[in-house]
UniProtKB/TrEMBL annotation:
InterPro entries: 6-phosphogluconolactonase_DevB (IPR005900), 6PGL (IPR039104), Glc/Gal-6P_isomerase (IPR006148), NagB/RpiA_transferase-like (IPR037171). Its EC number is 3.1.1.31. It holds the Pfam family Glucosamine_iso. It comes from Heracleum sosnowskyi. It catalyses: 6-phospho-D-glucono-1,5-lactone + H2O = 6-phospho-D-gluconate + H(+). This is Probable 6-phosphogluconolactonase. Pathway: Carbohydrate degradation; pentose phosphate pathway; D-ribulose 5-phosphate from D-glucose 6-phosphate (oxidative stage): step 2/3. The keyword Lipoprotein does not apply. Belongs to the glucosamine/galactosamine-6-phosphate isomerase family. 6-phosphogluconolactonase subfamily. One of its GO terms (molecular function) is 6-phosphogluconolactonase activity. One of its GO terms (cellular component) is cytoplasm. Keywords: Hydrolase. Residues 19-249 form the Glucosamine/galactosamine-6-phosphate isomerase domain. GO terms for biological process: carbohydrate metabolic process; pentose-phosphate shunt.
Amino acid sequence: MALSGARGDGMELRIHESLEELSTDLADYISDLSETTIKERGAFCVAISGGSLVSLMGKLCQAPYLKTIDWAGWHVFWADERAVAKNHVDSNYKLAKDTFLSKIPFVPGHLHSINDSLTVEEAASVYEFVIRKLVKTRVIGASEITDCPKFDLIILGMGHDGHVASLFPNHPILDERSEWVTYIIDSPKPPPERITFTLPVINSSSNVALVVTGSTKADMVHLVIDDVGPECSSVPAKMIHPIDGKLLWFLDNSAASKLNGTAQFS
Ligand SMILES: O=C1O[C@H](COP(=O)(O)O)[C@@H](O)[C@H](O)[C@H]1O
């Protein structure tokens, strides 16, 4: 690893020399977290997103992880989904399934994908209902502070504009405080209709991993991570602060190239 360290503000950065190194570290991190969480509470509830981070999770279906992880304890959710059929090239479900999920022996019924045959409004409300039932039966934990579900891990990518899940800059859903899952019909990035976890749910997670790579995201990474002033206050990635959990950034050297003071990590 090129650099690794905790910043005073409760976030940890891991900066990698290569995508290969990053994806191995990510798989080790997920595997360790899965082991300790399943020992502690019998299940591991992880929500994933779409985009470039999915291929970086591909190591999970390879040795040693395929054999060493206790997949029976896993429940997989989507932090966001695009309103397209599950076999559409834009589907976050399809991307994860084709890349690695289909090669892993999950318990049938533990892949909690978002219904693609409903309107986005209906799909968001049905998904929230599914999550509520799993909180009630204690498969998913509950935050004592926010009353939201407490996922064991939410893995997010970040767009060039700083969006995370389907929470886009300056969009009114950034102010959503009562729903756990909501929808948009005017996404600036196609497709326009999407379903997404809200900020309170993401910030109630025990662990949030933000996985960002490539030089085209270096400016936004600098804006979000370094204290550059009020101009970045409307950037969704900047709003990720787990209330009672940990925030870990997985970056490659290119994405981290404009960060201030990385020399303080070693
Ligand atoms: O549209 C989306 O974009 C973000 C970021 O994608 P990337 O390809 O730039 O990494 C992704 O995290 C989100 O889940 C997805 O719906």
